[in-house]
Every structure is written in C-alpha cells, then in structure tokens.
Design brief:
Length: 354
C-alpha cells in the first residue's frame, strides 16, 4: 500500500511508525524526522501535494491534524480520484467551533459543564469576576492556543486578554469539573460510528489504555445517550461524518460530563490508540472509505498489551513517550526510563481508583 501522511502532530509520527512496520507499505510523510520517507512540501501547498500523490500513485492519503482536515485537501485530491481518509472540510468546520458543538450537546441534553461564550474581552472579564474558581477559559476554535485552568480572577483576566490579543474572535468560559478524565474514540464511515478504544487520562500528561473505573452500564449509557445521538444530529444537520472522532469526558462520583470533541487522535492518545487494537489500520481505513466498515467489523478487538503514554516539556519542547508491554509494571518501567515522572504515574493510579 502506498500511503501519504499529511500533518504535523505526534499522531502523524505514530502512524508513520505503524505503517512502516509493514514491508508491503511505502510510506511518505510531510512531517520530517519520522520513520516514513520525508516529503519536502508544505501541507498548505495543496497543488504540489496532489501532483506528488498522483505521480507516486498513492492508494491512501491520511490527514492527521486539524489544519489539514480544515483545508480543502480532501476535496482537491478527490477531484483526481485520490482516496483521502478525513471528514469533509465543510462538515468539520462545524466541529471546529465549540459553540456549535455545545449546541449539539445542549440539544441532546448531554451533561456538560456550565458555559458562556463571549465576543468581547470586557464582557468576559466582568463575567468571570462574579464566578467561582477555578474556571476554564478556552478559545472557540481548536488550535494552538489551548484551554487555561485559572485559579484566580487575575489569572483568568490575563488568559482572556491574551486570547483576544492573539486574534481569537470568541472565547468559552466553562465551569471546572474535577474528576476522572477519559476519552472514547470512534470511527465513522458516514453512517454509523464504531468504537475504537477508551483511554484514561491524568492532568493531560499521563494516559493509559482502558477505563477500569467505568462500569459496563456507564459505558452503555455513554454510547446510547451521548455518542449515538451526537452522530445522529451531526448527520441530520450537516453532511454525514466520515473519519475519527474523539469524545473527552470527566467522571465525578455521581455523573459523567462531556467536556469536548476532537476530530482526530490527540497527541497523548495517538500511539495508545493506534497500537491498542488487533485489526490492521490498512483494513480499517479501506473498509471505512468503501462504506463496508460494519460488514467487516462487528467490533474492534483490543490487543492484550498494556499501553501507556506520557507527555512533558523538555527544553521548551513538547515530548511524548510511549510504552507497550505484556504487564503494566513492565510498561511503566519503560516509560520511566524514557523520562516519565514515576510519582505522577502513581498519583494517577490512586486518582483512578475509588
């Protein structure tokens, strides 16, 4: 299989590593320093990328980050019958707005933290002045400027001003919910979603495959009352969604809150999700693009390995390390040897237990 990866995230590198392990694949990537052959073309140079894909007879192009998904790459490639795995940019533009996503959540009565949107900094500042802390401040769109958890009014005011000073048009203020964080990833062929995996997370730095703190009834409730209605509304209000979609949750003692929606694997989750299943991603993508996902997969089987991921900053640069082993202790040892904080991992394990 001849594969072109377009993106600049850890997920791009993780898929490069995965696909190059198959000797039958020839893999190219716009992200340098991966296991794939480097393509010296900027991701926003769509015409050159298309010419490269045509000249090298790509059988699959995978868009691995928000910027490439939002761009018209898919539409331009498909004009020349190049196969691209990604949602249509028109469909994803709606998901790129937290306002629009929150409207779907609200419409389907899905529990989510209390929130407000603001288009002017002063109105947002006056609002947070009267609220309890901590409070979460987010830009409306998915991007490089991530959410800020603010403990004081002063820090919230600074965050609001920084967002607007950096060109953010709208911001979201959200009640902070403390609990057990986890993500559920799905893949959809335009008709129905299929569950890929569940990942436990701790303070955006440590992640592990599986969610032992969730009961089977809670998992079924999430599927029935959150994920299926979300896809159903997405299909009714826009075009059918084809691609990967992640749902980020927080579980308290008596409730589960949907926090956000992501269009592809988040950096800290990418290697866990990619390596955590038995089926080949070549087959999954092929069946998704040919609308035969459910004909070939009644469910996605998980492998028996323990998969852990840790994200930290080293010399000002974000680093992501990954471990896979037969036992949890063996995986943890590998992770710590790669730079993970052993104490933080222990804190996460205690936090996930009741």
């Amino acid at each position: 299989m001849r594969i072109l990866l377009i993106g600049k995230t850890f997920a791009t590198a993780a898929f490069a590593q995965y696909f190059t392990q198959n000797p039958n694949n020839i893999v190219f990537s716009t992200l340098s320093g991966t296991d794939a052959e480097s393509v010296d073309i900027l991701p926003d140079n769509i015409q050159e990328l298309k010419e490269f894909a045509l000249a090298n007879e790509m059988s699959l192009t995978l868009l691995c980050d928000k910027d490439s998904i939002l761009s018209p790459i898919k539409e331009e490639f498909e004009k020349d019958r190049l196969r691209v795995f990604a949602p249509d940019s028109k469909t994803f533009k709606f998901l790129n707005s937290k306002i629009w996503a929150k409207k779907i959540i609200y419409k389907n009565k899905i529990p989510t933290p209390r929130f407000q949107f603001f288009e002017k900094p002063q109105a947002a500042i006056e609002y947070v002045r009267k609220n309890k802390f901590p409070i979460v401040i987010k830009p409306d769109s998915i991007g490089a400027l991530g959410a800020r958890i603010c403990e004081t009014f002063g820090s919230a005011k600074v965050a609001i001003e920084e967002f607007f000073d950096n060109g953010v048009k709208k911001i979201l203020t959200e009640e902070y919910i403390w609990g057990k964080e986890f993500s559920v990833y799905t893949i959809c062929d335009g008709y129905n979603p299929l569950f890929l995996c569940e990942i436990s997370k701790y303070q955006n730095s440590f992640a592990m495959i599986g969610t032992d703190f969730l009961g089977e009834k809670e998992k079924q409730k999430i599927a029935k009352e959150v994920i299926l209605p979300f896809f159903d509304t997405l299909t009714k209000e826009n075009d059918a969604y084809t691609g990967i979609l992640g749902f980020n949750f927080v579980k308290t003692k008596d409730k589960i809150f949907l926090i956000s929606i992501v269009p592809f694997f988040e950096d800290i989750d990418s290697q866990i999700a990619i390596n955590g299943i038995k089926a080949s991603w070549e087959d999954i993508f092929e069946c998704t693009l040919s609308n035969t996902l459910f004909e070939n997969f009644s469910q996605i089987q998980q492998n028996d390995s323990h998969l852990l991921s840790y994200e930290f900053y080293e010399n000002g640069k974000k680093t992501n390390v990954f471990a896979q082993a037969k036992t949890f202790n063996a995986a943890r040892k590998i992770l710590c040897e790669e730079g993970a904080d052993k104490k933080e991992i222990e804190e996460a394990l205690k936090h996930w237990k009741y």
